Structures are given as structure tokens and as C-alpha cells.
Amino acid sequence: MPKYAVKNIEPNPFRHIERYPIQPAKVTALRESLQTTGFWGNVVARPHNGKVEIAYGHHRLAALKEEYGPNHKIELIVRELPDEVMLQIMARENMEEWGTSASVEQETVRAVVEAYAEDQIGLPPPTGTKTQTRYAPSFIPGDPDRADGAHPYTAQTVAEFLGWVKPTGKAQDKVAAALTALQYIEEGLLTEDDFVGLGTKQAAAVIEEARKARARREVTARLHRQQAEEARRAAEAAARDSERAEREQQRREQEAKRARNTAARRKAEREAQRLAEERRRAAEAQKAAEKRREAELRREQKQQEAGRKSAKTVGRTVSAELKKGKVGYKQAADIAARVDPREAGPPPHIEDFARRLAGDLNKVLDPDRDPRAERLSALVEYRDHLEDHTREDLARTIEGTANRLLDFAGKLRGQGRRGKPRALPAGSKRR
Question: Where are the beta strands (DSSP E) in 150-298?
């Protein structure tokens, strides 16, 4: 086997030493071993720019430098190893050296995502939903604008690359936890230091409590966003009404000018005055709706900011308490409750919002107000002319929609989930 001077041996390019610090105690133990048995040459490396990069054995390399100096030569197993293999070997070495260190798990996942973003490795196409998909190099889910969109990935695709999968083939929980932690770090909610010294389950508890603290405000923020959207539509409708009234007013005013008798002229003038008043009311409604929209958007932003603040406070507090070692990860929820009690009271105008939503839902498949009802009736009439799979797919879609609505009905009544799916009503029996 060829020999290489220690100074010409470089670390695995995917192992950032500043993120994976060398353990002094392990180096000391290896130096003692070198003094007794010498260096055992089973380290694999690959050639790189006249030097070599080792796939693993970084503590041994550090021990060699300290014990023999940079000019000492050792034998290495040199092979042509692709980036994928170098990264996968590094991941295995990290787990062997650091066990269940949350920081190392996060940095291993970070290395995969960064290498994927640089086209150094490939990942299988993601099969999850858009909310589960991330775009390298970002860790924020469902946000392709933060990248070029050419590098989508999920926890499952990262897990498959690393081999961190359960017997069922699904990604191990630590992969999703690492990605969420990296997301919160990218968003500025938490920092790398918040996870230093924590194990896998402790880090998962920090993430979960931060997520729940943020989610409580996000629910309220979404309601404000929906009310803002409703106000926007109302403002647009009022603007259309104002434009229509203006056109009609001008037409009536022209009629008044062309009128051949007093009665016709007065009638056109009265109609023009009525339309002017209608136009004024529509303009006021538009202005009020726009004002309401701006207020709702401000409330949404306030809730989002409160959610970020709560997530940061809860995450860092839970992390600090777990690091003290006086409580376990199972008490994380109790710590979070002390520093972030639930907010009292719903968002303003929620009663009006609920009534308007009920009115909108009441239109769904109403024969007089929803054209889809007529289309469905036509399909029922000609169902025998449909392919079996087409008829079945449509029936299941209707069932699924009905069941989702029933789920919401049960939750609104405080009854939880509905339980067993309901069958199709009589008269719509599938053939």
C-alpha cells in the first residue's frame, strides 16, 4: 500500500471540523494506542489534487499529527470514491463517534442538503406533499422561492440516502426533527447552540414545544388572513358596484338632457340621483372594506410576530432547562406552559366571520347557486355510460369531501373526530 505524509492527508470534504469537533479525550487514548501498537492501516482514502482525502478516521489523523508530526508517513487504502460514498461513510462515522447527539444529526443532514444543492450528490424525486417538500439549500418547507426550485427534497429522500430508515422503510424520526431544527435555525428562531449537548429525544422535545407555541398564534393569524381576503373581495365587489352605478348615472343624465317632456326628464333625473346615492354608498363600502383588510393584515402580522417570539422563548427555555439535567424531555411541555401560557380570547369579529363562512358553505352543491350540482346531476343521469373506475373515483371524491365536512362538524361540536367513514347516501349507490 502507498504511504503518505500526515501533512498530505486531508479530512473528508463533507466533514466540517468546526461542526464536528475532535474529542481531545479520544485523541489522547489513540496516542497511547499508537505508542503501544503503532498505526493500524485500515483507513480508506481517495486521491485529491496530489494529496488524499480520508473517508473516516479523523481522530486517528489528529492523534498522528500530535504524536509524530506532519512529515510522518503512513499506509492508506486508496480508492476512487464518489462524493455519495464519502458522505455516507462520514454519516456512519459521525453516528459511531457521537451516538445520539442532536447537533451531529443536524450537521449530517445539513451536509447532505448542501451537497445536493451543489449537485455533488443526487437524491430520489420526492413523493410527499408540497408542505413536506423543501428546496435545497433552504430548510424551509414549501418555499421554492428561496431556491431555484431544481433541488426538491423531503425527510424521506434524505433518510433513504443516509440509510436512516425504519424497518417499514419510512424515515426515522430524527431526520424530520433535524430538518425542523435546521429550519428554525434558518428562520432565526433558534440557534445551533440551543442544541449543543442535547440528545435526539431532547432536541425533538425542544422542537415540538417551539412548534406548538408558534402554531397557536398561526391559527389566529390564518383567521386574520382569511378575513383580510374576504375584505379584499368585498372591496372589489363594491368597486364594481360603484363603476356600474357611475355608468348608469351618466346614462340617465344623458337621457334627462335628451328628454322631450318634463315628466320623462324628471324621471331620468330622479333615477340619476338614486344611482349617485348608490355610487356613494358603494364607495363608502369599498373604503370600509379596504380599511378592514388593512387592519386584518396588521393583526395577521402581529400574530405571526408573536408566534415567532413565542417559539424562540419556549425553544430556548426548554433547551436551557434540559441542559441543566434536572428535568427530562418528558417534562418539556410543563416547562413550555410556564413560559408561554395559552392566549385568552379569540380574534375580533370571529362571530361575523363564522356566519359568513356558514353562508358560503351553504351554497356548496345548492342546485340554485352552485353550477357543480347541475353537472353532478347530469353525471348521475348518465352514470351507466361512465367507466367503472371513473364512476368510482368520483363517488369516492364526493365521499371524501362529505367526510371532511363531517369531521369539521364534529370538531366544532367538541366531539372530536367522527370515527368511521360514512357510506354514500341512498340514491347514490355505486354500481
Answer: 152-153
- Write the single-letter amino acid at 236: E
- With 0-12 CB in 10 A as exposed, 13-18 as middle and 19+ as buried, what is 332? buried
Q: How far, rounded to the nearest angstrom, does the alpha carbon of residue 262 sit from its chain's CA centroid? A: 69
As a whole number of angstroms, the distance between CA 295 and CA 396 comes to: 41
Range among 85-94, 207-216, 378-387 rated most confident: 207-216
Span of 95-104, 287-296, 320-329 with lowest mean pLDDT: 95-104
The C-alpha cell at 197 is 449537548
Reduce the DSSP state of residue 261 to 3 states and report it: coil
Total length of the chain? 431
**Cell numbers representing residue 334 in the block:** 410543563
pLDDT band for position 284 (50/70/90)? very high
**Nine cell digits for residue 362:** 351553504
| Residue 340, φ and ψ in degrees, nearest 5 | -145, 70
In this structure, are residues 227 and 296 in contact, taking their beta carbons and an 8 Å threshold?
yes
Burial of 330 (0-12, 13-18, 19+ CB in 10 A): exposed
Q: Assess contact for 171 and 156: CB atoms under 8 A.
A: yes
Picking from 94, 92, 85, the residue whose alpha carbon sits closest to that of residue 59 is 94
Q: What is the pLDDT of residues 213-235, one digit of tens each?
A: 999 899 889 989 999 999 999 99
Please state, in angstroms and rounded to a whole number, the distance separating the CA atoms of residues 236 and 221: 23
Percent helix / strand / coil, the chain, rounded to 5: 65, 5, 30
Amino acid residing at 126 = P
What's the confidence (pLDDT) of residue 262? 92
| 335-349 tens-digit pLDDT | 998 988 765 456 666
Task: In whole angstroms, give the CA distance from residue 207 to residue 205.
Answer: 5
Averaged pLDDT, 232-240: 95
Contact yes or no for 162/91 (Cβ under 8 A): yes
Cell 347514490 belongs to which residue?
428
Instruction: Tell me the pLDDT tens digit for each residue of 158-203.
Output: 999 999 999 999 999 999 999 999 999 999 999 999 998 899 999 9
